[in-house]
Amino acid sequence: MNILFAASELYPLAKTGGLADVLGALPSALQARGHSVSCALPLYRHVMECNPDLFDPGLTLEIPMGDRILTGRIYQTTTPSGVTVFLVRRDEFFDRSGLYGSDLGDYQDTAERFIFFSKAVVALAGSISPDIDIIHAHDWQTGLVPAFARAAGASFKSVFTIHNLGYQGSFWGIDFKLCNLPERYFAPDSGLEHYGHLNCLKAGITHADQVTTVSPTYANEIQTPAYGRGLDATLRANAAKLTGILNGIDGALWSPATDPNIKENYTAETLAEGKAACRRNLLKRAGWPKDTADLLVGIVSRLDPQKGIDLLRDSWPELLKMPVRFFVLASGTPDLESWLKSAMDENPEKISVDIGFSEKLAHRFQAGCDAILMPSRYEPCGLSQLYAQRYGTLPIVHGTGGLADTVTDWNAEARQGTGFVFRPCNRTAMLGAIRRAIELYQDRAAWDSVARMAMAQDFSWDVSAQRTEEVYARA
Ligand code: ADP
Ligand code: GLC
User: Fold this and answer.
1) C-alpha triplet 89, 94, 98: angle, nearest 5°
2) 395 within a domain of the structure (yes/no)
3) 165 lines ligand 2 (CB under 6 A)
4) CATH number of the domain that residue 403 is part of
5) In 10 A of CB 51, how many CB atoms?
6) Cβ of 381 below 6 Å from ligand 2
7) Strand order through the sheet with 193-194
8) H/E element, 385
9) Among the listed residues 115, 372, 392, 353, the one whose alpha carbon sits nearest the alpha carbon of residue 273
10) 0.85 exceeded by the pTM?
11) Residues 239 and 275 in one domain
12) Domain containing 319: what range?
């Protein structure tokens, strides 16, 4: 099949979270299965700065936006894994310091930026030769792609993947004018309209030929009012075309045996020595010269209510008394950032905090910590717990969405499990799971054997690519 992916992030060009990792890996996994795959991404300033020698194929698209006609110029590059990426250039929208906004919040013209991008993707799809069969759009930023394709009478089919129902791209109804679609597209039950607003995610769910999300459990959860974020009825109505497919791991980037970012490479056989070296390196960096027998727990996360890091704050008095130390690499909501900094100021031997985004450090945390904590209130898939298991680092997770599908709770009697799963999502349950981890950690040989079981899990992209291919066939 000839497939065009469309998204607002793609590793290594533009990343704020797991969406980028998926776009960096799934297209090449499909390509390896014999398909012809390319991707479309906005040409952000950062991409331009890091890739001064972009190829210019001389293609300009004319995009109607309300009563204006805007041009978008296409540039091209290739990912390290050999996938062609089409970059849509319009400096008015994308030549900015952030992908979505600044410290002051989301950019004011968010609707315009991504309506423009989605239209450009559909126009681009029409100019690719040979004809594309499938356009695969991801998250709300490209949620309008299936509707634009349908309205244009496109010959290709569309697949839409929900990575996070928490972000819907919901804008004033007046922005519908920018779509240049017939009024009937904004009627109730038309897909684009939601309580008077333009809802890009709902548009994707309604108009795509097939819809996927990133884990089987999340596919079920989002059909309930508790997780549906107001779209559960829409999802139930479209359940026949909804499939949950787990994300995988890009083994070329995330493998302790070859990872260039970590102090010492290791395999399941050399786990103890390898992790000890990575741990020393992390302790040194934190300015903790003396190691202790404390469990080292890492957090690598966006700070957003989704991620439940406020539970750490609420449990802090208890955690201070437990044999556990924390390494946190995170950025996001200002109140949590400032709490984390003050926790480190008050107890510098207990918690080491890096506010910001560092790919290299994320790898070092995965290798050097004993466990990774993810108390997410909801988690469509989650990648950090997959990386953790690959690195023999045991995840401590709330049993929801993809976390429930990929971490097996340690059962001491059956001697089975790859991490610690707690429910419900509250501090008591989380502290219980951390206590159980600490208990197992007292017997280091037993801990290491669980870590080896975690490392043996197969989270390769190939299985997910095969499932995705089945969805394309259904479309
Ligand atoms: P989400 O996409 O909801 O943020 P995932 O677990 O799917 O959650 O993916 C998170 C990705 O972003 C992982 O690759 C993780 O390593 C990375 N990440 C999150 N926060 C940071 C950070 N502060 N610095 C570096 N990488 C981060
Ligand atoms: C979203 C979700 C996360 C998922 C990622 C990639 O950001 O929050 O759970 O792993 O997308 O699909």
Assistant:
1) 145
2) yes
3) no
4) 3.40.50.2000
5) 15
6) yes
7) 170-171, 197-199, 193-194
8) helix 384-390
9) 392
10) yes
11) no
12) 271-455
